[in-house]
Write a structure and sequence with these properties.
about 250 residues; alpha/beta; Rossmann fold; 7 helices; about 30% helix
Length: about 250
């Protein structure tokens, strides 16, 4: 049976609410815990899509996290073989880097609930078009990326021009987090309290209070987005290339 592969970089950044959506859609999925040294050994023909989650590391931290170098190779192979991809935060940055696009430090760290603007391309996108033109989403990042060649910008914000992109039909990169649960947000704040203390304009108490207001709507966005992504990813596939790419 085809399954969705999930690359997880950090024990605290899991599928979150996305797991519920996948289960509701009847999609079989398997998480590869890269931080535990797990390496998939399946063929692309058994993979309906690849979801690449976030993480606290940078895309350039290959010496400290050797799996990042391997992961970029896998992403390039997946793109060549037309495997649907969804990258979240670090995952989006890895897709951009694998495509030869610069990933850079941003002017500010966006941590908490921030507004984004959905571009005209995003408003007519079948997956992201469920979001209103101005939406509040959850963010936790200090890096950004350029727009990959040939990609369409789907969302932007005041400090980060590229908040979401789509390349082709089924390659998505989201700088923001749709998968969040209240438990995940509280856990991230607790686990990264020392880092937050070094950013004076970030107020954890406000993040927690904002969560009560914005999380129900975020879950609606998440379900609509991922359901459509999975629906498109699991359509009958055309024959994929066998040109000796790295396989998972």
């Amino acid at each position: 049976m085809d399954e969705v592969l999930v690359f997880q970089h950090d024990p605290f950044e899991d599928l979150g609410f996305f797991a519920e959506v996948l289960e509701k859609q009847g999609a079989s999925f398997r998480t590869i815990r890269l931080f535990h040294g797990e390496v998939p050994a399946e063929d692309w023909e058994q993979t309906s899509a690849l979801i690449i989650l976030g993480g606290p590391m940078s895309v350039s931290d290959e010496e400290q996290y050797p799996f990042l170098r391997w992961e970029k190779t896998i992403i390039r192979a997946a793109i060549d073989d037309a495997v649907p991809l969804l990258g979240v935060c670090l995952g989006a940055q890895l897709i951009a880097a694998a495509l030869g696009t610069a990933v850079h430090h941003g002017p500010v760290k966006e941590i908490g609930w921030y507004p984004i603007s959905i571009t005209p391309h995003g408003q007519v996108d079948s997956s992201l078009g469920y979001l209103p033109e101005n939406a509040v989403v959850f963010q936790w990042h200090g890096a950004g990326f350029g727009l990959p060649a040939g990609a369409q910008r789907l969302a932007s914000s005041t400090y980060y021009e590229n908040q979401a992109f789509r390349l082709g039909r089924n390659i998505y990169g989201l700088q923001f987090h749709l998968e969040m649960t209240s438990e995940m947000i509280e856990r991230w704040i607790d686990e990264r309290s020392k880092d937050l203390a070094q950013v004076p304009y970030i107020h954890p108490d406000k993040i927690v209070s904002d969560t009560q207001n914005y999380l129900p709507t975020l879950k609606y966005y998440a379900e609509k987005f991922l359901s459509e992504f999975i629906r498109r990813a699991t359509k009958p596939k055309t024959l994929k290339s066998k040109r000796g790419h790295a396989r998972v």
